[in-house]
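Protocol check, entry for the methods section draft. Step 1: assemble the input record (protein sequence plus ligand SMILES). Step 2: submit for complex structure prediction. Step 3: store the structure tokens unaltered in the notebook. Ligand used here: zinc ion. Step 1 record:
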Amino acid sequence: MATFPLPFKPTLSYSAGGRRFGANRDGGKRKHAACDLIAPKGTEIYAVEKGKVTYGPYLFYRGTYAIEFRLDSGKVVRYCEIEKVASGVSVGSTLEEGALIAYVGKMYVDSMLHFELYAGTGSGPLTVRANPPYQRRADLLNPSDYLDSCALRTTTP
Ligand SMILES: [Zn+2]
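Step 3, stored output:
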């Protein structure tokens, strides 16, 4: 079983409203490519499974950053709208399941983890503006069921 990426399950469902995967953006011209996990700035973010940091951190949205993490299972997670990565985490880092990888960032008002999941069968950049409506690589997945299946972290790796 994978580990939930935050120390708690958010009060506001990540599978409802504007937080859900597929919610409209830009008046319907674009769709939300992630689940938004509402949490205070600075909340710890964990590796959902064992994997390796492959790219980042890089500027993502409104002063927040993203980091890409390839799971040993082959799937790719992009942790977005983060404040910063954890100490010692950089490209090439191998992290055990449940390891601290980053911290939740804050945009103008909101703070959350924007959690993107990919099957890992594609190649190239994850953001593809020319691929509507998600503007993401073709192997993008709805992460709701995956997040539902995660257990809260109980031990520190
Ligand atoms: Zn989002």
